[in-house]
């Protein structure tokens, strides 16, 4: 009986060691994944910043173009012989409308680009997040297993102690 218990204890200890090793490996994996996620997020932020900068530059260029056109129109209005007011205004509007449309189109395009980028990044991040979740679940399961094994170990030790006490008790009686 005693030998059996000792063997069981040894086995349990080995199992515990294995589980601990597994836990360590899992933790390492989790850390690596987290690092990857962080890197991806940083890249995403950088890309977004670059896009925003581009957007701003484009807007500035468009504004400059608009200003130039306005100057041109004003020059034309000053240089051209005076005419009845409505045509002048009409001319100005006709010049400005296509430009405004262009500006709107560009803005829309940029927004679409941003959305696409975000979607792509989400797609990249999703599998990683899922993996992280799975690993965390595994970790929890392993921890539970570890706890169970520890409990078993404790029980066995108690049993062993009881047996030893019993054994000693018997011995004592016999010697008397």
Automatic annotation (TrEMBL):
Bilayer topology: Multi-pass membrane protein
Transmembrane segments: 35-55, 62-83, 89-110, 117-138, 144-165
Annotated ranges, domain ABC transmembrane type-1: 1-159
Cellular location(s): Membrane
GO biological process: transmembrane transport
Name of this chain's protein: ABC transmembrane type-1 domain-containing protein
Gene Ontology cellular component annotations, sorted alphabetically: membrane
Keywords, sorted A to Z: Membrane, Transmembrane, Transmembrane helix
Entries under InterPro entries matching the protein: MetI-like (IPR000515)
Record's keyword annotation contains Zinc: no
Organism: Dreissena polymorpha (Zebra mussel)
């Amino acid at each position: 009986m005693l030998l059996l218990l000792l063997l069981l204890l040894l086995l349990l200890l080995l199992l515990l060691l294995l589980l601990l090793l597994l836990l360590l490996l899992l933790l390492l994996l989790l850390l690596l994944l987290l690092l990857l996620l962080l890197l991806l997020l940083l890249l995403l932020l950088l890309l977004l910043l670059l896009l925003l900068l581009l957007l701003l530059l484009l807007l500035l260029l468009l504004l400059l173009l608009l200003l130039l056109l306005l100057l041109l129109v004003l020059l034309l209005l000053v240089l051209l012989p005076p005419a009845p007011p409505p045509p002048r205004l009409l001319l100005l509007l006709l010049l400005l409308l296509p430009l405004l449309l262009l500006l709107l189109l560009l803005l829309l395009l940029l927004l679409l680009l941003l959305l696409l980028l975000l979607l792509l990044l989400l797609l990249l991040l999703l599998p990683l997040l899922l993996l992280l979740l799975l690993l965390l679940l595994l970790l929890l399961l392993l921890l539970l297993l570890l706890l169970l094994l520890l409990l078993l170990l404790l029980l066995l030790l108690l049993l062993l102690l009881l047996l030893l006490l019993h054994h000693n008790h018997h011995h004592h009686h016999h010697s008397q």
